[in-house]
Amino acid sequence: MSQLTPLYPRQLVPEVAVPVVGGDTWNLADQNPQNFTMIVFYRGFHCPICTKYLADLDGKLSDFTQRGVETIAISSDELERAAQSKSKWRLENLTIGYGLDLDVARQWGLYISTGRGKTSVGVEEPALFTEPGLFLVRPDRTLYCATVQTMPFARPNFSEIVMALDFVPKNDYPARGEVLDHHTISTAV
Known about the structure:
By secondary structure, the chain is α/β, with parallel strands linked by helices. The protein has a single domain, classed as Glutaredoxin, CATH 3.40.30. Helix content is 25%, strand content 20%. It has 4 helices and 9 strands, in the order βββαβαβαββββα. The protein has helices spanning 48-66, 79-88, 102-107, 158-170; strands at 17-19, 25-27, 36-41, 69-74, 96-97, 112-114, 128-130, 133-137, 143-148. The strands form 3 sheets. The chain has a 5-stranded mixed β-sheet with strand order 5-4-3-8-9. A two-stranded antiparallel ribbon has the order 1-2. Strand 1 (17-19) and strand 2 (25-27) form a beta hairpin. The longest helix is centred in the N-terminal third of the chain and has 19 residues, at 48-66.
């Protein structure tokens, strides 16, 4: 497995392409959003927190679309489990990608966990799976915003992201956290 790599705002993000529930393939390189592509990496069908989190996103999807944001949720689950996530969690509008390669997940800076048996909802965890991450990617495929977690808890709030998306374009708010080496920055900056 490849090394965990941090991503930096204003830099190109790695390629990612996954099949989606329903038969198509989703590829970041093919996206052409007005403002952002939002990629929500989730743990998989076994995760009870993902159920509520993605249901919240599904209910707010039109808010994101109105703000020029195209959205996908991706896991390393296989098709059967991804399809169960979409149907059993009643994700009517959200595009669900599956089969994320764990080496690609590492390129995105995602943490990988090992399965520990059945979760509190009685679903077996896969042998390996990704922990959550959320990325806003500009149309030029540069990173605007990222959050990566080692646990399923305390994820970014979608209502707050919607509010930020009202502020960001209106105020031309730049991507932050872009400094790669603070030693090369002039003290006059």
